[in-house]
Each structure stands twice: as C-alpha cells, then as structure tokens.
Amino acid sequence: MRSGGFPCRFGGCDECFTVSDQTSMPALLAASALRSQHEVSVHGYTHVQLEENRRSPYAPAQSKRPAPAR
Ligand SMILES: [Zn+2]
Is the pTM higher than 0.70? Predict the structure, then answer.
C-alpha cells in the first residue's frame, strides 16, 4: 500500500500527489491543492468538501456507511 500522498478522487484515475514532508502541514496542503488543481484542470471535476477535515490529514477518505435500519 502506498503511504502518503493524495490520490486523485476522480474515478478511474491513478494519479497520486505525494507529500514531500508528511509532518509538514504546508506540504500536506500543497499536495492537496495540487491534487484539486489536477482534478479540475484534467477532469473538470470539483470535489465537494462536506466538512472541514483539515485537523486530521491522516483520517481515511471514505465516509461512514449508514447502519442498516431494521
Ligand atoms: Zn485524475
């Protein structure tokens, strides 16, 4: 598994933007910005952020699945 970096969120794209310094917040934001820029310029895709997650850059990108109601 590749560690670090921001994979393109557009389906089917393998582009990944690595973070030069995992402990550096500016580096994380820079890689994130590059990724967003790539998504918009290459795919015309703008990822909508539902909430601010900047405090935990290591949090998994996937969202919680709602529990099935029974
Ligand atoms: Zn892409």
Answer: no
